[in-house]
């Protein structure tokens, strides 16, 4: 190991110039305990119950700091306030976080159209990133809407805007619709 490499490691192990360590605590409810309840409800009833606080949100919502803002048949709106834990090495909110927000909004919009005992899963998603997201972007709003809800395949889209109303990303998705096992 060269002297330069040793000095770099000493600098890293010593007093780091990049700021103090930060942390975030994530708390969620066990989703297995609500599965039977969710299966006994239509998608719209489920998301209304989550929005009203009668059922806990799925754990991914807590991880990504997403909250349901509005829900109707064929549409749902989430808010998300990114923090620095979502940053990539370039100092931007990672595109994967924005994609997760879009996937959630679009897929859950389809869920609002499904009857009791019917589920969905993503087949594919296409995302267009239009503007970089940082902490200065403020809270994000993700709106999901159904394009077509068929009997086996559904199509939905999503759009994310920043606090100033600028569109930062859009997505279209295809979802497989299937009956839950009884």
UniProtKB/TrEMBL annotation:
Keyword terms of this UniProt record: Hydrolase
Keyword Iron-sulfur: no
Gene3D superfamilies, per the entry: Hotdog Thioesterase
Hydrolase as UniProt keyword: yes
One GO MF term attached to the UniProt entry: fatty acyl-CoA hydrolase activity
Alphabetical list of InterPro entries matching this protein: ACOT13, HotDog_dom_sf, PAAI_dom, Thioestr_dom
Organism domain of life: Bacteria
Occurrences of domain Thioesterase (ranges): 91-168
Disordered: region residues: 1-24
NCBIfam families hit by this protein: unchar_dom_1
PANTHER family hit by this protein: ACYL-COENZYME A THIOESTERASE 13, THIOESTERASE SUPERFAMILY MEMBER-RELATED
Family from the record: Belongs to the thioesterase PaaI family.
Protein name (database record): Aromatic compound degradation protein PaaI
Organism of provenance: Mycobacterium triplex
